[in-house]
């Protein structure tokens, strides 16, 4: 995972724990904060940053955040009538209208931080910033 793929507020895994990206410097350094105990980790070297891992999207994460599983297809989840996420060939695809428009956006989102980006693009900032990972 590269720092350039991340945004402030993204969830990542570091040493087996989930963290939130709190700050990204112009030099590529990042600061993480643990969402529950508020412990801060400052990463200033490429080696340490390389230890970051993406958090895979799971059905449990989707359900914990208000996505409802389709009765017809166990790999399809709906959110507020306008967004859908479904699994296809072991990858999640996210589709949603952008800020209520008639056009649809389709994005591949295999990891939580990618889902956060997709939600923000669609104007679902509150959900993106407050995802539950349990």
Written overview of the protein:
- The protein has 134 residues and is of the alpha+beta class.
- It folds into two domains: 3-49; 59-129, no CATH class.
- Helix content is 19%, strand content 33%.
- It has four helices and nine strands.
- It has helices at residues 46-49, 59-64, 112-121, 125-129, and strands spanning 11-14, 17-24, 30-33, 40-43, 68-69, 76-79, 83-88, 91-97, 104-108.
- β6 and β7 form a beta hairpin.
- The radius of gyration is 15 Å and the shape is elongated.
SSE blueprint and pairings:
Layout (H helix, E strand, L loop, with lengths): L10 E4 L2 E8 L5 E4 L6 E4 L2 H4 L9 H6 L3 E2 L6 E4 L3 E6 L2 E7 L6 E5 L3 H10 L3 H5 L5
Antiparallel strand pairs: 1-2, 2-3, 3-4, 5-6, 6-7, 7-8, 8-9
List keywords for this structure.
alpha+beta; 19% helix; 5-stranded antiparallel sheet; 4-stranded antiparallel sheet; 9 strands; 4 helices; 2 domains
Brief write-up:
The chain is of the alpha+beta class and 134 residues long.
Task: Estimate the global geometry from the Cα principal axes.
Answer: elongated
Structural class determined from secondary elements? alpha+beta
Succession of helices and strands:
EEEEHHEEEEEHH
Number of strands: 9
| Fraction of residues in H or I helices | 10-25%
Domain count, please report it.
Answer: 2
User: What's the main sheet like?
Assistant: 5 strands, antiparallel
Unreliable parts: none
> How many helices does DSSP assign?
4
Q: Per DSSP, what share of the residues sits in E-state strands of 2 or more residues?
A: 25-35%
Mean pLDDT: 82
